[in-house]
Structure formats: C-alpha cells, structure tokens
Amino acid sequence: MLELSTPVKYVKGIGPRIADILGTKGISTVDDLLHYLPFRYEDRLNPRGISELRAGEMATVIGEVRSSGLVLTRRMPIFKLTLEQGRAHLRCLWFHGAYLKDKFKLGQLVALYGKVEKNPSTRELQISNPQFEILADRTDSGNGAENRAAESLEIGRIVPIYESIGRLTPRWFRRAIRTAIENLNPDLLEPIPAIVRKRLGLVSPREAFWKVHWPDAGESLQDLQSARTPAHIRMIFDELFFVELGLELKRRQQKAQTGIAFRLDERVRAAIKKILPFHPTAAQKRVLKEIASDMEKPYPMRRLLQGDVGSGKTIVGFEAAIIAIENGCQVALMAPTEILAQQHYFSARRILESAGYRIVLLTGSLETDRKREVRRHIAQGNAQLVIGTHALLEEKVEFANLGLVIVDEQHRFGVLQRLKLMKKPSEGSEAALGGTAPGARPAQRSSSGSPQGAPPAPDVLGMTATPLPRTLALTLYGDLDLSVLDELPPGRTPIVTRRVADERSPEVWDFVRKQVAAGHQAYVVYPVIEENEETELKAAIKMYRELSGRVFADLKVGLLHGRLDPELKDQVMRMFQKGELQILVATTVIEVGVDVPNATVMVIEHAERFGLAQLHQLRGRIGRGAAKSYCVLMTGGKVSEEGEKRLNAMVKTNDGFQIAELDLELRGPGEFFGTRQAGMPSFRVANLIRDRELLEAAKREAAAVVAGPSTEISDVEVSRALVHMRTRWQNTYGLVEVG
Ligand code: ADP
Ligand code: MG
C-alpha cells in the first residue's frame, strides 16, 4: 500500500533509475507524482470524424496509418502521413520531419492532435506538425489482455496528456500515475475543515486525484483545459490554502510578539512637520497615518509600503523615522545598493540634519577605521538614523536601542534576508506556537529592553517600488500589512516614451544635446548582465569613450558602473547630482532609487534586452521634476515577439501597476522577479494569474482557521490543518520557520 509520502521509487514500475529522472523535476514522492497534472486532455471518447473537421479548430483524430514517408523539398524535408478512417482520409505533415522516417507502420492505430487547416494549393484539410501517439499495432503480438488493458487508458475516454520528462512519455505517465492511484491507501487524510469544504464545494482528495487524471466521460473538456473541474479546484485550493495558512500564522505570531508602543503626541507631530520640504500628497498623508497607527501598537509593525517609482516613499520613511527617534529609539534604513544608500544619506542629511538629528552611513566599502568608529557610535546610541546596505544585516551591527527598521526597495532583498530581518526570536511566543526558530538577530539590545528580559522586536517598514498586482502581493507578502501610495506628487508631466532604431542614433544625440542646452541632464543606459559581464562592460565603456570623446566632446560626460571603485562611484554620482556632469553613461546600477529631478532624458540602448519591470524602474529615474521628460528606447537588430510586447507596453503606459500586471502575464509568476530573489513558493498546480479568485478565497478561509476553533470549526480540525500545513511547508517549500 502506498502513502502520499512514500518515495516514488517504490511505485510498481518505477525503480531508482526512473526515480532519478523524476527527481530532476522535483517529483520525489507519490504525492508529487499525483500533483504532476496533465497539461491538456484529449477527447478520444468522441474523436472527430475526418469528414466533420472544420478549418481553424483544434482536433483529436484517431485513425489508421494508410501511408507515410519523407519528401525532400528544396527548402526542407517534410514527413507526410495519410490517416484513414473508413473511406475518409486526412493528410498530415511535419516540417523538418526527418526524425519520423521509421516511426510509423502501415495499419497502426494513431491519435493525432493539432490545428486543422486548409492546404493553400489543394484546398484540402490537413494538420501540420500534429502531436501524435501510436495507440496500437495490428501486428502487435504478445499478451492480449494486457494490451487491452493498456489500450483502455489510451482510447475510448478522455485521455490525459502529460509533459514528457526525458524519456518518460505521456503514455508512461498515464500508466505510472494510474498504478500509483490504484495502490494508494484509500483512507486519505482530509486536512481541510468541513465548513471550508462546504463553502467551496470541494471534493475529497481521493476523488480529486482520480478525476484530475482520469476524468469521467461526461466531464466538460473546456473545464478540464481551463483547470476548472471540481477535481482541479480541490487541488488548486488545497495548495493555496496551506500556503496562506502558513502566512496567516506567521502574521499572527508576529502580532503576538512584544513590540514597542511608540507615542505620537503633539511634540512628535510638530517635529515631523518641521522637516517636511513640501506639502505631502493625500496618499502620503494616508499612508503615514497607517504606519503611525501601527507604530503606536504594542506589537511590532510589519508593513509594506508599495508605490510606483517617484511616488515619494522616501519622505514617508523619514517621517516614520522621526516618530521612532523622537521616542528615543534608533532607526536603521537599508538600501539594496551603495549608490542608493549614499543618496539616502545625502537627502537625510539635507532634510533631517538641520533639525538636529544624528545620521551615519555604514556601507561595506568604508575604511576599516571609519567603520569601527561608526559602529561605536551606533552601539553607544549616538547615531539616531543609521543608513546602510545589507551589510547592516550581515555584519551583526550592534544597536543600543533599535526601534525601527526601514527596508527600501524591499523586493531586491531575498526572502531569506527578509526572514532574517523580520525574525526576532522572542522565545516566549515562539515556544507557545510550537516552533523553535534558530536565526540571526538583526540587532541586539545591550541596555534597555523589556523587563521580562526578551527585548521587544523593532518595527519593520518595507518599501517597494515594484507595484505588485494585488494577488501577487498577497502571496509574496501575505505576512505583511500593505499600504499603497497611489498618487504622484503634483506638477509632474507624464514622461514621453519613444522607440527608435539604432540607425537613428544621430537624431537621438541631437535631441539629448538640445535638452542639455536647455539646462537639463541626461542618462544613457547600457545593459550589462551578469552572464556576459566582461564583454558587455567593455561595450559600455567603449560607448562612453565614443560619447565623451566625440559625440559630446564639448559636454561633461560621466561613467558609472558596478565595477568602479566605491569612492569613484560616489564622486561621479555626486557630480551628476550637483549638475557638474551633464550626461551620465551608466549600467543598471542606477536602476533603483536614484533621484536627480533635473535629469529629463533617458536613452536606453538595447532596450529589447531589459525586462519590463526593469525598464519601468529605469524610466522612473526621470520625470521627477516639473519639466517634461523623455525616455528613448533604442533597439538594434531583431526583437523577439515578447520583446515587442515589452517595448510597446512601455510606450503605451507610465502606470507601474499596469506594467506589473502585464509583466506578470508575459513572464508568469514564477519568473516575475527572477527565481533567485523571488522567495516565492513555486506552486505545483496553482497559477496565480488564472487562480486569483481561489487565492483570495484561500486567504479568507485561512484567516478563519487561524482565528481558532469556533462554532463552525472544531479544535480538532484546526490542529489537523495546522499540523498538515507545517508538514507541507517543510516538505514542499523547505521552510522550517513557520509555526
Ligand atoms: P520613490 O517613491 O521612487 O522612492 P522618492 O521618494 O525618491 O520616490 O521621491 C521622488 C521625488 O519626488 C523626490 O525628488 C522627492 O523629493 C519628490 N517628492 C516626494 N513627495 C513630494 C511631494 N509631496 N511634493 C513634491 N515633491 C515630492
Ligand atoms: Mg525610492
């Protein structure tokens, strides 16, 4: 008897060798195997008669091979096959089909699937490049009963089609999965509380497994293809529900910790007012209110401030910092790059220092002596606002009295860093929830702290410039509260974005020159991606020479890239900020956060090579002042279809939320941020675009379960769900910290 947790190699017909192949796709248990869903289904119960086919439809056709052979044309080899159904014939072609030469035998029964089309010259219907499966061979010898049994999985029903893995074909998966389900312990645990199942109309796990792989004859093919059968819904909801349950629990745990209840009185309000260099927008006011109300609560704040590039997050962060500092606490502000940390340092000094606040910068590139001195200031509590990169995390900086951590461009930090930062194991609450979480503390308090011994956890405010579609934010940051800055500061003129082919660069440079003559500044950005760093960096440097030495020989042109000495980087950035450089040639080091309102032009070379979110971030460097700004996307050579979509989206809209939605659709949720930084659980059956509504439902129901037993949910059900959730998080997402 198989259990869901049984390693897949114990399924009959799968040995260690095949288990290894499955392992490459993350299939290691029976449970994993059963979650390997068909990517489509073929209706072989009612296959189409050849005579009733219509041009333009997708169809499954079953028939016998009447003739087949390779035809060599001038342009390519074409494999042709004629399928026979009684008197009717259908021609099928495979372009470049030499590999099929010896595949088919006369009289074989085959199933073909593809798009029916009209042959342009003969006007007859045909299918090009169909997917196919050889069902049976008239000449097949051997065990008749076994053949018939196998056949019954292939024809006369709705047949599941799986993605092949190596040499494991769709047909192989049908047999293996069938065997696994047949031998599965029939008493499967039902971890979802009855009331939740009832509200969503969920079928049992066992029924879901069966029917998702072996749909009933009457099942709607459309529902199957769009993953909307009851079996699909059960499996998808199941997956989302336990992810959301984990996130909800984490959120609860955080709220159960002891935090700092900051006081927000007239004095603090006046202090905030004093530093404001401009009138905050309505959105900034609302968001600050949300943050301040969190900070007043006795448990730690875990809030994410989401706002499009240029919406003015920095000042909100500074306001929050003042609340903490005026309450006698220290504040850490972390940025993902040194350049950005630098810039925050300068604006903090400009805005806050005159009010008497003590600000320090701590980055990896400081000289050792200076670092030691800064650390001492921090440890003694002299420094009130500490600005740095994630070196702040890694180097275990000791704070005297850390009250608030602000993480700028939070999406740039990996999820593990995020956990480290968020985690402040105050033993009491962890133990109460049954987990031991080893983990680094972001900071330690030497002197003050709560009387019980465990120091209160600091508040955490994340800020992100990548506006996430709501569903994704819910999942990725489901353990955080969300504030949205959905208004740009007044007086901004929308950025004009144009696409221009490489050959027209002289015109582009003329345009840049005119803008500079009008007193503005410009960025010229080159792609330098890690894989090709050496050569691309060289290309960027060469372009810099070309621009500074020839095209703009009379102007002041600077160069900024990641490999520069930190001090030099600093100097270049500062010169550009002060207007001493008119043109800045840069790589994507300027992608996030950089704020020079006088820069009104951004020329992006090889724009087709950047991701959509990245292009939007880059463009966010301009349009920060009142003057009209221009973004020029230059493309050289051939642009892929997806590249076209990205560039068109950029030309069409400036709205980060729209861009994020589109990006999600183009790339799919898994790649939305690039897996390395995503920290996104990769789903086995759910798809965040398709399954938005189920995700919302899962979140709602998870909250109800975490709230504890009620008239609707028994305590047995609650604990069963929680136990299941922990196992799931450990086995599937490798996250041990939860619960
Ligand atoms: P981001 O949200 O991308 O981090 P910043 O905080 O860098 O944006 O702000 C973008 C620019 O807008 C900065 O130059 C900032 O000084 C300015 N700014 C922010 N809020 C306002 C406001 N309420 N009125 C006028 N200018 C503002
Ligand atoms: Mg910013």
Write the SSE topology.
Layout: H1 16-23, H2 30-34, E1 40-43, E2 58-72, E3 77-85, E4 88-95, E5 109-118, E6 125-128, E7 131-136, H3 144-154, E8 158-161, H4 170-182, H5 194-200, H6 205-213, H7 221-225, H8 230-256, H9 266-275, H10 282-296, E9 302-307, H11 313-326, E10 330-334, H12 338-352, E11 359-362, H13 368-379, E12 385-388, H14 391-394, E13 402-407, H15 415-422, H16 427-432, E14 459-464, H17 470-476, E15 481-485, E16 496-501, H18 505-517, E17 521-525, H19 533-551, E18 557-560, H20 566-578, E19 583-586, E20 599-604, H21 612-619, E21 630-635, H22 641-652, H23 656-667, H24 675-678, H25 692-706, H26 715-733
Parallel strand pairs: 4-6, 9-14, 9-15, 10-12, 10-13, 11-12, 13-14, 16-21, 17-19, 17-20, 18-19, 20-21
Antiparallel strand pairs: 1-8, 2-3, 2-5, 3-4, 5-6, 5-7
Helix pairs in contact: 6-8, 8-25, 8-26, 9-11, 10-11, 22-23
Residues 278-281, 284, 307, 309-315, 465, 489, 595, 597, 624 line the site of adenosine-5'-diphosphate (ADP).
